[in-house]
Each structure stands twice: as structure tokens, then as C-alpha cells.
Specification:
The structure is a single chain. The chain has 170 residues and is of the alpha+beta class. The chain is built from four helices and nine strands; from the N terminus they run βββαββββαβαβα. The protein has one domain. The strands form two sheets. A six-stranded antiparallel sheet has the order 1-2-5-6-7-9. Strands 4-3-8 form a three-stranded mixed sheet, with helices on one face. It is globular. A hairpin with a 2-residue loop joins β5 and β6. 17% of the residues lie in helices and 26% in strands.
């Protein structure tokens, strides 16, 4: 592993993983998979919660944060409120165009690849949101909002330290 200067958003770096956080922001989203309700949401700007991304052995993971600040080791994570993301935060890459290289210099490209792809399907039995309308109800109410309502995030029951120490539970 080559020596790298770590930017402020990088949370952890080992030969096997890179973890970083991204502040809350508005992003363009794409929905697919043949769901007519999801298709109505396609191609709009939505507010997103602050997020923790991690690449572990060329797999992408994402979790959400309740507070818009750099997380600490004891910060409790929330489930990422996105299709294509399972209970562990593992992302189904599908046709996502991810960078060939895994390095600190490519983290923004991994993040962009995630949001440039289509959210097409739920991945396993994971509760994505506490919104009374579920996943589609949540995203259908967000297009006109400036901030993501973190009250609809589901507590993951896991700290950042545990997430980066055991990215894949057996």
C-alpha cells in the first residue's frame, strides 16, 4: 500500500478498507427496476442524510448518520435509506461503474458511482426507514425539501468502530 495523505473526510484506512463520511447534501437520484411508483421519482434532486461509505475488499458499503458532523468511533450508525443496500450496508453493485482503483484519491468517484446508478430493488430483510409510507413514501415526500428528516432513519444498533472492525458479519 502506497503512502497517502489522508483528507479530513477519511475515517479509517487499512490495506483492506477505506472508510469516509460525506455531509448531508442534495443529490440527483435514479430509480429503476420496473416499479411504476419508483419511476415517478426518477431524475429528481433529493436531500440526503450524512453518510458513511466504506470499501472493503472491493465491495462498497454505506450507512447513514443522524448528525451532520464527522463521526467518532462511538457514533451510532443508521441504516442507509436506499434500495440496493442490505442489512450490513453492503451495496449490490449491479451495473454500477465503479473505479478500478481502491485508494483515497478514488473515494469521491466511488461515491458518485453509487448515486449515478439506479436504485432498483430492496436488498434482503432490512428496514430502510421509519416513514409511515415506507421507502417509496419517504422519497416521494423529499423532492421539494431542503433537508433530509433524520427522524425517519432506522438505528443500525452498531457504532462506527464496530462497522469498520467487522464490515461483514458471519
Amino acid at each position: 500500500m502506497a503512502a497517502e495523505v489522508l483528507p479530513e473526510n477519511v475515517l479509517a484506512r487499512t490495506p483492506e478498507l477505506i472508510a469516509w463520511w460525506s455531509p448531508a447534501q442534495r443529490r440527483l437520484m435514479f430509480f429503476g427496476g420496473g416499479n411504476t411508483e419508483a419511476t415517478k421519482l426518477n431524475g429528481k434532486m433529493y436531500p440526503h442524510p450524512p453518510l458513511v461509505f466504506m470499501i472493503y475488499e472491493r465491495e462498497l458499503f454505506v450507512q447513514a448518520l443522524a448528525e451532520n458532523c464527522r463521526p467518532k468511533s462511538n457514533t451510532r450508525l443508521r441504516n442507509a435509506p436506499y434500495w440496493n443496500t442490505d442489512a450490513q450496508g453492503r451495496v449490490c453493485l449491479g451495473s454500477m461503474r465503479v473505479p478500478e482503483e481502491v485508494s483515497v484519491s478514488t473515494t469521491s468517484r466511488w461515491e458518485h458511482a453509487y448515486f449515478d446508478s439506479e436504485f432498483t430493488h430492496p436488498s434482503g430483510a432490512v428496514r430502510l426507514t421509519t416513514h409511515p409510507g415506507g421507502f417509496l413514501g419517504l422519497w416521494s415526500t423529499l423532492a421539494q425539501r431542503k433537508r433530509f428528516p433524520v427522524k425517519f432513519l432506522v438505528d443500525r444498533g452498531q457504532t462506527l468502530q464496530k462497522f469498520i472492525s467487522r464490515p461483514v458479519e458471519e
